[in-house]
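Hi all, long-time lurker, first post. I run a small reading group and we've been trying to get comfortable going from sequence to structure in the token notation. Rather than ask abstract questions, I figured I'd post a concrete chain and ask someone more experienced to write out its structure so we can walk through it together at our next meeting. Sequence below, copied exactly:
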Amino acid sequence: MTKILVIDDERSIRNSMKDILQYEGHEVVLAENGMEGLVSVKSEKPDIVFCDIKMPKMEGIEVLERIKEFSADTPVIMISGHGTIDTAIEAIRKGAYDFIEKPLDLNRILITIKNATDKHLLIHETKTLKNKVSKKYDMTGNSEALNHIRAMIDKVAVSDARILVTGPNGSGKELVAHQLHELSHRKDNAFVEVNCAAIPSELIESELFGHEKGSFTSAIKQKKGKFELANGGTLFLDEIGDMSLNAQAKVLRALQEQKITRVGGDADINVDVRVIAATNKNLKEEIKKGNFREDLYHRLSVIIIDVPPLCQRLEDIDALANHFLTEVCTEMGIAPKTLSPDAIVALKECEWTGNIRELRNVVERLVILCGNTITREDVRMYR
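-- Answer (accepted) --
Happy to help. Here is the structure in token form:
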């Protein structure tokens, strides 16, 4: 059932709308002026608002503006018997979902309600999904090392400074990159990830910068690269230590000039991208070996965040193991299982060369192979 608020100073309009909408199965709240309507929006939290434009005390456009200040996602449909094109345009510009002229047409009202309800539901589902995605990249644990990383993220996320995230495989470098993006002013724009180690050296330039049609044999159409796709957002260059020197030179230019050129193209394309890079290699050693450009290293490492291996933050294993336990049971659609205290101790005694990624795999294995309570013996047997 959709809750609809009708704000109109004409009693006949309010009552007619109430009768029609209740007959259609909606819950209806009435308000005879703008101030009363604003109070009802806050207290009743309607799904949709119908608001007259010409009212005493407070005009409908002002009511619309006030509603959007504290309930931006609520669809507001403006109604008026004195409407003009200019009035309708102004209402839409200020956030109205639609504009309907009096005398009100029943079919138009019902269609508008359906469309507004669908849009409101879609916005709610999108926000829910975003929250789920955001929680997916939460960093679990309360060790001193992890708290230091969180503090670093809080300080640097708000800036556009380039960041180099270092640490062994499976330690959580990707989580750091996602957290930096989620806490930045770019969070509503794209987060584009590139695994530099997984792309062949002959294709990395096309992937990063795009290509023009016909620039090489398989280029049958124009393609945007990751820099363009991340425009306005964040580009995460994972395993950048594995990037070819030729591609490094072009990345350096993109960082210096904030411009890229597609493979096979001549035109410069402006890009506004915040770059976060990650590596499991010692880039200073790679520079000495001639495998990595020193100038690119200095461009990327304005801020360095080092993620320690799991063996240096054993106090996080309890929280991590239980987090993965809940996650795996939910994904499998089974009743929650528990880890006994001695099982946690056994996990802390293990050597985690694969770090957090390995711990997650082990927990999943234990969920599949063990009973409702996972014991120390289970860990020793299936570790």
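A couple of things your group might point at:
The mean pLDDT is 92.
The radius of gyration is 28 Å.
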